[in-house]
Write a structure and sequence with these properties.
The protein is built from 15 helices and 13 strands. By secondary structure, it is an alpha/beta fold. It has two domains: about 140 residues, Bacterial fluorinating enzyme like (Elongation Factor Tu (Ef-tu), domain 3); about 220 residues, Protein-Tyrosine Phosphatase, Chain A, CATH 3.90.190.10. The strands form two sheets. A seven-stranded mixed barrel has the order 2-3-7-6-5-4-8. It has a five-stranded mixed β-sheet with strand order 9-10-13-11-12, sandwiched between helices. Helix 9 crosses helix 15 and helix 11 crosses helix 12. The longest helix is centred in the C-terminal third of the chain and has 20 residues.
Length: about 375
């Protein structure tokens, strides 16, 4: 049984994990209790399923977007981790999951086994308390805003399909386009995107979301109508990559480099379409890397990336705060990863084109391939 256990928390915490943690009790918020719980089970991913029902935690005053501390009786602890209803953190980061689809609260580390990291077993006890109310508000807030999938909520087909030309830096006209998927109609945009790439006379496609087998399966599915894209597939002009979204991992760096290398290795003919499902995160990263390589300024790269945000959210749910959060949590972090700096001031000082070149060379492209790519993108031919 779960007990609201402020007094018990004080005595056992100091005893089990050392007197140095006794001061953590001062972080408790008035009216929001600490909880004593147990490890009820370990799931197949090594996540810790607790005996705390989600509903009990929320009714006690814990809110999605708060950060919490959790201390186990064996000395393992995690502090200031977000309480969320989904896996919205980066690889290697811990979070407390209160998913609507689950009964009990779960502790997890994305991409790792928290049970192994903490040497945790069924029956181990722990104490849980709030660290900072709304301490992870930005993470939770960004997950609560959602775009409309109604074409009438958007000013044009281009905005609805998140379709546009990429022309920052030294990228010549009619070389690169980006959009939501012309083949995956999950969000009702496929036919619009297909029509727009036909009008732009797109000749090659870099699909970041699907494997070649997935692409062919979609084409064969009932109700498929994107015939221009189908023609490009039949011509062998579509590359399927099925990339992850974990842009700060070595796997992603190699995947994105492999994808960009396909442009020269497969002699892809421009105009080239780059797309994922919504054409935001993965597409945004590939385009940002190409723009960085081609000498675009920080402002140009951010403005192009954030057009996707404006396209999807401006009509219904955008705000200046949310816009700034996306800049901070998405495109800035991407550029920090590419350029190996820690802040925007560093981006303004560094030679970003040189950094992008080193990024690509460090993950599988040759200098000759990069030169050929830059020549292709800058040529007016």
């Amino acid at each position: 049984m779960i007990r609201k256990s402020f007094c018990l928390f004080v005595s056992l915490l100091a005893f089990s994990v050392g007197s140095a943690f006794a001061g953590k009790l001062n972080q408790l918020y008035s009216g929001i209790p600490a909880y004593e719980g147990k490890v009820a089970s370990l799931d197949r991913n090594g996540n810790v399923v607790t005996d705390i029902p989600n509903l009990d935690l929320i009714e006690a005053g814990y809110l999605l977007g708060d950060t919490v501390n959790i201390y186990f009786n064996n000395g393992f602890y995690l502090e200031n981790i977000p309480l969320l209803d989904g896996e919205y953190v980066q690889m290697g980061e811990a979070y407390l999951l209160a998913a609507k689809s689950a009964k009990d609260v779960t502790l997890a580390i994305r991409g790792a086994r928290v049970s192994t990291a903490g040497d945790l077993r069924v029956g181990d006890t722990f104490f849980l308390n709030v660290n900072t109310q709304k301490g992870a508000f930005d993470i939770e807030f960004l997950r609560t805003i959602a775009p409309s999938n109604n074409r009438l909520d958007y000013e044009s087909d281009e905005v609805f399909a998140n379709f546009r030309q990429v022309s920052s830096g030294h990228i010549a006209p009619n070389k690169i386009y980006r959009s939501s998927s012309p083949i995956d109609n999950t969000f009702g945009r496929a036919l619009y995107a297909d029509n727009l790439i036909r009008k732009a006379n797109v000749k090659s496609v870099l699909n970041l979301a699907d494997t070649v087998d997935n692409i062919r399966h979609r084409i064969a599915s009932k109700g498929y109508r994107s015939n221009y894209y189908k023609g490009l597939v039949n011509e062998g002009s579509v590359i399927g990559l099925s990339m992850t979204s974990e842009f700060n991992t070595e796997r992603f760096a190699k995947d994105i480099t492999q994808g960009i290398a396909c442009i020269v290795r497969h002699r892809m003919q421009p105009p080239i379409l780059i797309h994922s499902t919504e054409g935001k995160s993965k597409t945004g990263y590939v385009c940002a890397l190409l723009e960085t390589l081609m000498g675009a300024t920080y402002e140009e790269i951010v403005n192009d990336y954030m057009l996707s945000y404006s396209n999807y959210y401006s009509a219904k749910s955008a705000s200046k705060m949310a816009y700034n959060l996306v800049v901070d949590k998405s495109i800035n972090d991407m550029l920090f990863t590419i350029c190996k700096v820690k802040n925007v001031e560093g981006l303004r000082r560094v030679d970003m084109s040189k950094a992008a070149r080193e990024y690509l060379e460090g993950h599988g492209m040759t200098g000759r391939e990069i030169d050929e790519l830059m020549s292709l993108l800058s040529s007016n031919v």
